[in-house]
């Protein structure tokens, strides 16, 4: 790398007794004088060197890699691939799986009202179909109004902020078990929306620990907790309904209590366990903490992920960015289907002619299929470093599933055909939601922009459930053809929007590459004193 690029790294790397990584690096022009010594070949990552020597001329990001910041260059040589893999594995096991558990609890608490309805909620509280829709709407109204709390991930320490959120929604969800009227339950549902509003910032929080081409799979692990929670909720509801026949408490009250209170208990572990950034992860050694920080410099341009406050200029820039509105529009369309089917599916299956207990049990398998589909989709999206192709495919898959249910209902086909249609619908919209969230984060180049992008995504996208809760009125029983057809159209629209965004981002990438090619010769032989600005020039939009 020395003679080929005309750059030298100095001084040499120091490793202290504890194995900490130290060193103060600057890039020097080898054609001039130099005071520092070269790094020995043992400090270089062989895979890094081989990849660059063999493929850099063919890579579309070659021009940007040549303009990499000093911090980026030093990061590639301060740790081995095995050390990096060890850090990633620890974050996967200790962080991602834990926040996936939290999301499972939150999704369980927001969507179990569908199971409570067929367990006797409507009868005991004398709820009409319209009142039930307002209970669903109450959650999403406050959920949307308080999406700005995503920005608070950059204001308060995450372990404190998240533990308060988890404890609050767990307590409120449990209190639904003592609701005595429509008004009392309406207030609790609205409060639950506030408690869960900040949790949508979790994918942004995970960007403090993962690179952009690692984020989809981890977001997939996180989002896949939703279908897992839905299938678990159906199975648990079936068990609780059976137990409720032998205890002096209504089935739906027992359901809210059993599924809500565990979040209060888990909040304690959130406070003790969740790190604020890579350097505060207690399960990493001191060396691993530095490796975790250094490996992110390629994308943070020397800024430390998860640290620092909000930058209002970047917030304003994101608020008028067209691509922020395109991803938000995709999220809106996806959420029409994503939010409505889980809360109505038990009722829909019951209207197919099955008993309440059987409909609870039959609600689980489609979401188990969605769970595995989300994981595989996210894995391959990261592997091939593309988002649009997977969004388009799964949007059409979900559209096909809804169309199948609509057509089967319109011709009054056998219930099994409508039930089969649930599978592609669930697998499709859960996968789309996962990739759209990740795509939003990938295409912002700073923490402030990412936080604002996620907030915009949810402010606009979460309006979708307000539409979704109207799609399955009692008057459309037993086939709900109109609701299924509308969801099919919305999911097809997602595919069209994803294609449009890919086209726009491709144009932007080509334009930036052309600008860098033009300016590249002007920077030859210059000493890089501060890599921040150059580091940001590495940024390319993910298609």
From TrEMBL:
Chain residue ranges for the region called Disordered: 1-65
GO terms of molecular function: transmembrane transporter activity
InterPro entries, sorted: MFS, MFS_trans_sf
Comp. bias regions, Acidic residues: 46-57
Chief place of localization: membrane
Bias type Polar residues, positions: 32-44
Transmembrane segments: 95-114, 134-153, 160-180, 186-209, 221-240, 252-274, 325-344, 364-381, 388-408, 420-441, 453-473, 479-505
Top-rank taxon: Eukaryota
Residues of the signal peptide: none
Classification via Pfam families: MFS_1
UniProt membrane topology term: Multi-pass membrane protein
Keywords, in A-Z order: Membrane, Transmembrane, Transmembrane helix, Transport
Cellular component aspect of the GO annotation: membrane
Compartments it resides in: Membrane
Coiled coil spans: none
Protein name stated in the entry: Major facilitator superfamily (MFS) profile domain-containing protein
Species in which this protein is naturally found: Letharia columbiana
